[in-house]
Amino acid sequence: MIGYLNRAVPLEEAGDEEFINLVIKIRAFAMNELGLNESKNYTNYVELGRDYLAAIVSASAKDSFLRYEWNFPIVGRMPYKGFFDINDARKERERLEKLNLDVWIRGVDAFSTLGWFRDPLFSYMRNYPPDRLASLIIHELVHSTVFLKGHMNFNEELAEFIGTEGARLFMETHYGIDSKEYKEKLVSAADSRAFLTFIQSLIAELEILYSSDRNIINSEEIIIEKERIIKNAKERFNSEYETLFTSNNYRGFYEMNINNAYLELFRLYYSPDNFYMDLYERSGRNLTAFINAAKTIKPRRGNPREQLERALFP
User: Fold this and answer.
1) What is the pLDDT of residue 35?
2) CA distance 226 to 206
3) Per residue in 158-217, pLDDT tens?
4) For the CA atoms of 12, 14, 16, 20, what is the dihedral angle to 10 degrees?
5) For residue 87, what are the contacts with CB-CB under 8 A and spacing of at least 6?
6) How many CB atoms lie within 10 A of CB 156?
7) Among 59, 85, 131, 175, which is least packed by CB within 10 angstroms?
8) Which residues in 49-79 are b (16+ Cβ under 10 Å) and which e?
9) For 274-287, b where at least 16 C-beta lie within 10 A, e where not — what string?
């Protein structure tokens, strides 16, 4: 990451006035309207000759959703590891596969350095639609505002929720609810929810399998049944596609080699119980107040979800 940071130039030198102005507005909205911490993040720009920042490796047991974790000095245990060289990521995949784990490699377009460095924008982000750029910037700014060591599920679920809702509010404020941009955002969001619902249904089916009595069904039999369940889900997904989605954005799912490591990412980033949206609705749909409540959470004061709820309903 240091190598990329050394190549960063001020955002004003990005050479794309529309992109520059949009970033400035998103940052101002995130910090001034939503109350995320003031920082110099996303005021610098890096020209990069590819469409992703890093290759992220995740791993899970083959017969359960027991995730593999890496231990890092500052942030603690993490359920993924990033590599700027794709070949290093592939070597890590080979190492993990020798441990008989399901492994998944994905490209990510950003991650937060949690205030240790000034997080930059990258050239491929110039092609992002406004809602995706807003969601990305707000998501990462949440991490630099609220990050609890040892609570990765909470960190990612919170950032995902605030990033998504914050981007919707930005689009509503900046473009208006009758604009083409806002209506496209709503359509895209509906498809995203449909895909997430499908994935969470598949995860729930597999969780039932993985909770089976191991004295009755052994690991090898569970893995065979897992593959059957995933195969059936993909076929169902393909046959029902037109009723589920309005775009072609998810058609590639049928061809993907889905495994536990892939599905575990959804368990990490998305709360299946709709906790954050329910709490947001009950507390009056005020995202600034929601964020301010999240800022009061301390890692050693118990369950962060319970702390968030108490902060909103003292």
Assistant:
1) 97
2) 7
3) 999 999 999 999 999 999 999 999 999 999 999 999 999 999 999 999 999 999 998 899
4) -50
5) none
6) 20
7) 85
8) eeeebbbbbbbbbbbbbebbebeeeeeeeeb
9) ebbeebbeebeeeb
List the Cα angle 158/310/270 in 5-degree steps.
20
**What's CA 153's distance to the chain center, in Å?**
11
Q: Tell me the pTM.
A: 0.86
Q: Considering just the CA atoms, what is the radius of gyration of the chain in Å? A: 20
Provide the phi-psi class of 202: left if phi over 0, else alpha when psi is between -120 and 50, else beta: alpha
Residue with tokens 């893995």: 223
Cα–Cα distance for residue pair 249/195, rounded to 1 Å: 10
Using the structure block, give the residue that is written with the tokens 């807003």: 134
d(CA 231, CA 215): 26
Structure tokens at 71: 């231990």
Which one, of 39, 21, 20, lies nearest residue 30 by Cα? Answer: 39
Tokens 């590891």, residue located: 81
Phi first, then psi, for residue 108 (nearest 5°) are -120, 150
